[in-house]
Amino acid sequence: MTGLAFVVVRGPALSGKTAVARRLAERLSGKAAVISQDDLWWRWIVGHDPDLAKETELVYRQLKLLAAAYIRSGYHVVVDGP
Fold first, then answer.
1. Do 35 and 18 touch, CB atoms closer than 8 A?
2. pLDDT in tens, 28-52
3. Which 3 state secondary structure label does DSSP give 76?
4. Sign of CA dihedral 29, 33, 35, 39
5. Beta carbons within 8 Å of 82's beta carbon, 6+ residues apart
6. How far apart are CA 36 and CA 80, in angstroms?
C-alpha cells in the first residue's frame, strides 16, 4: 500500500470489528494506530452531557481530531466504529 491509509471498520455488535481493525493495523506497512469509537464513547464521553446528540457529536469530533493528529504524524489510521 502506498501513502497513508484511513480505514473505518463497521458492523453489528460482537461481529469482530475490533479484531479485524487490530489485524488490519498490524498488516499495514509502517506505523498504524487503531482508534476505538467505543472507547471514546464509553470511557471518556458518555454521561458528561444529558443531551445525547451533543455527546454523539463530541465523539465524532474527537475521533476526527485524533485521526488527523495521527495522520499528520505519519500513521495509518484504522477506526473501530460501531
1. no
2. 989 999 998 888 877 766 666 667 7
3. strand
4. positive
5. 10, 13, 37, 38, 41
6. 5
